[in-house]
Amino acid sequence: MDKLTEHRPFEDGRVRPRAQTGRSTAKRIALLAFAISALVAMLGVGYRLGHANQTLPSWVPLRVAALLGSQPAKPAVTGPIIYYRDPDGKTLYSKNAKTTPDGRPYIAVYANEDVSFDNPSETAAPAQDTGAKRILFYRNPMGLPDTSPVPKKDSMGMDYIPVYEGENDASTIQISPGKLQRTGVRSEPASLRTVTRPVRAPGTIKLDERRVAVVSLRAQSFIESVENVTTGDHVTKGQPLLKLYSPDVAAAGAQYLSIVSDSGGTANLAGRKQLIEGARRRLENLAVPASVIAEIDRTKTVPLTITWTAPRDGVILERTAIEGMRAMPGDVLFRLADTSVIWVIADVAEQDIDAVKIGAAATIKVRSLPGRVFKGSVALIYPEVNTQTRTTKVRIELPNPDGVLLPDMFADVEIASGAEKPVIAVPNGAVIDTGARQIVFIDKGKGRFEPREVKVGTRGEDYTEIREGVDEGDLVVVAANFLIDAESNLKSALQAFTDGEKSK
Fold first, then answer.
1. Which among 216, 212, 310, 306 has a CA at the least distance from the CA of 252?
2. H/E stretch holding 28
3. Which residues contact 14 (CB under 8 A, 6 or more apart)?
4. What is the pLDDT of residues 365-380, one digit of tens each?
5. Contact of 54 with 83, CB cutoff 8 Å
6. Is 214 exposed, middle or buried (0-12, 13-18, 19+ CB in 10 A)?
7. Rounded Cα–Cα distance for residues 317 and 23 (Å)
8. In three state form, how does the secondary structure of 250-270 look?
9. Rounded to the nearest 5 degrees, what angle is found at the Cα of 17, between the Cα atoms of 15 and 22?
10. Are 425 and 463 contacting, i.e. CB atoms less than 8 angstroms apart?
């Protein structure tokens, strides 16, 4: 047979060309010669350093070992074969012996080779000797919620792992480092913080009821003329609004003038003074302006018409006065309001009303004025709850110097609330609320976590106040605590199963 076509088998049964085998042998000889020459050179360096009273560098033996291809001795395998794994380290396993698609056999894994399922490519050290500890039960090797009181195998032929007495501490949960790293479990110490939580609610702008006034008469009158003011106009206090004639006012004015003009008709000066005061009080009871009474005193005549003025600064909201009309007592001729200060009535949800305090700062944003923010404060919390919407009205007083805020505008209200002093707080994600209780997980290091029941206080946007259960500086799990909670539930189930087995 030709040397170029002659073959011999590999160890796994495949064949290869003999010429290729010759070339491989030549390469090995060349590498061995290079390693020997490097070793001789390093020994020479060591000899010279020894004569110079110097130590051999630590890298020399390591380099020599690397060149010679020496590796730590692999511990001998013992026990039966548990399963077979892919020779390339892939996450492929088999209960029985098999080969890869290219014909290579799977690697056998023996009982003393404890494979870490957190990282299939790494093998852990053999399990420590448990001594004379009593086995409580056997758990599923893949972490499934399945236990057995006697040794057994799963569907892949893997042995169940024994759980010894003292390993199932109910106060802590043990999680492998690989699983913690994959799921992103993160811890943060509890610290003193000022917990704030803005209460958000819809609101409506209303007029300040204390700054609304009306113009009405107390006697039957006839409107002679109305000034050039109408709804929406801004007026000032004392500005003329209308002129009217009232028979009752004219009669009261004439009586007052006659008493004042009678200088000697009454001998008793005290009695005359009382008459003047009574006549003047009658004019005041008819709401005659003080300026009109002063004019009667000055001119000694009763004016035919009286000018009625605005009682305060404000915007005219309503005008019903018409020239020539007859106005009866109590008829509203003008309605005006001072809009320099307005109210915002916010509908706060029932569950948030406890967080709102009188005097708390409030931020108002009006939808019709984007980009503008108005500042006010809580003036009153109304003492009732709307049975339909389950909300409580909160009144906020807000300055409106430029008058851009108009009645019945919609507004978005944000009321500041929370603790005024720093309190122990943890991130909101650290608290697991089951409805009946609140739990956090304390990180005790090395993959150990302790569930701890706590009492919470104010819940802010980012942090929650902890009133009981956690001290300042305690390391609390703040991310991926759902994994630890699941492990805790699994452990509780296993513990209940064990207790049931013991009671049988």
1. 306
2. helix 18-51
3. 103
4. 998 888 899 999 999 9
5. no
6. middle
7. 108
8. HHHHHHHHHHHHCCCCCCCHH
9. 125
10. yes
The Cα 34–Cα 29 span in angstroms is 9
Contact partners, residue 379, CB within 8 Å, separation at least 6: 343, 358, 395, 396, 397
Cα–Cα dist 118/110, whole Å: 18
Report the C-alpha gap between 363 and 414 in whole angstroms.
Answer: 5
Is residue 150 a contact partner of residue 501, using CB atoms and an 8 Å limit?
no
With 0.70 as the threshold, say if the pTM is over it.
no
Q: Please, is 459 exposed, middle or buried when counting C-beta atoms within 10 Å of its C-beta (0-12, 13-18, 19+)?
A: middle
Within 8 A by CB and 6+ apart from 279, the residues are 252, 255, 256, 259, 260
CB 345 within 8 A of CB 395: yes
Phi-psi domain of 486 (left: phi exceeds 0; alpha: psi -120 through 50; beta: other) = alpha
The sign one gets for the Cα dihedral 465, 468, 472, 476 is negative
Q: Token match 């000066």: residue?
A: 269
User: In the numeric block, which tokens belong to residue 169?
Assistant: 């501490």
For the chain, the first-to-last Cα distance in angstroms comes to: 77
Q: Give per-residue pLDDT as tens, 26-53.
A: 556 666 666 666 555 555 544 454 444 4
Element (H, E) at 32: helix 18-51
In 3-state terms, what secondary structure has residue 341? strand
Question: Of 492 and 159, which is predicted with more confidence?
Answer: 159
C-beta of residue 157 within 8 angstroms of C-beta of residue 181? no
Residue 300, by phi and psi: left (phi above 0), alpha (psi -120 to 50) or beta?
A: left
Residue type, 318: E
CA dihedral 364, 366, 372, 376 (to 10 degrees): -20
